[in-house]
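Notebook entry, structure prediction.
Reason for the run: the old model in the group folder had no record of what sequence produced it. Starting over properly, with the input documented here first.
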Amino acid sequence: MLHDRLLVEPESDSAERHSTGGLVIPATAVGPKRLAWATVVAKGEHVRQVDVGERVLYDPEERAEVDLAGRDYVLLRERDVHGVAERDEADGSTGLYL
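New structure, fully documented this time:
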């Protein structure tokens, strides 16, 4: 990876979602723009705040898709990351910092 680039593997997005009230939201329903989660699989030499293996939050509309060995990845700049999820080893829960 070069410069400030990140190669991330997007989490699979199911076609249907469920609301907190239990309603099924079909994939065809148009809603507000949503951010997506992905796992960092490689990083460039100038990336300072994200490490390989961390989960990052990014805008799926602003991305470059890459197909490597039959798997889909997304190429991002470090500045395009909106947040990072950090796993707390003590209790196994996820803490977020933005």
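Summary: The mean pLDDT is 82.
The old model has been moved to the deprecated folder.
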